[in-house]
Amino acid sequence: MKTKKSKLTKFQWQVLKEAAKIPLGQTRSYKWIAKKIGLPKSARAVGQALKINPYPLIIPCHRVIKENGALGGYMGKNTTRKEKLLNLEKEIQNNFRKI
Question: Can you list the domains of the chain with their CATH numbers?
């Protein structure tokens, strides 16, 4: 069975690999990922690669935000779900600290 993953480019895989490294409850910017993969002027392309993330439950593309702190889109849609996921992660971290 073929999945969407077989259609991803090397660039898209690089973006997803960097996004996967972002720790729970933390965020990084599109520009940060662009710099990490050696293409500092490709922040918009990073966003487009994250938009088609075939593994959103495993690769946390919701942790990638705009450099100015705005959330940006989430899988090509509005930011409501992205905001909820980030808030949920903060809640989880706060509960872990209490233990």
Answer: 4-98 (1.10.10.10)
Residues in contact with 12: Cβ distance below 8 Å, sequence separation at least 6, in sequence order: 49, 52
Residues of the chain with pLDDT > 70, as a percent, come to 94
11-33 tens-digit pLDDT: 999 999 999 999 999 999 999 99
Catalytic residue, chosen from 33, 37, 61, 65, is 61
pTM more than 0.70: yes
**Per-residue DSSP letter, 47:** H
- Which residues 6+ apart lie within 8 Å of 10 measured at CB? none
Contacts of 6 (CB under 8 A, 6+ apart): none
58 counts as catalytic: no
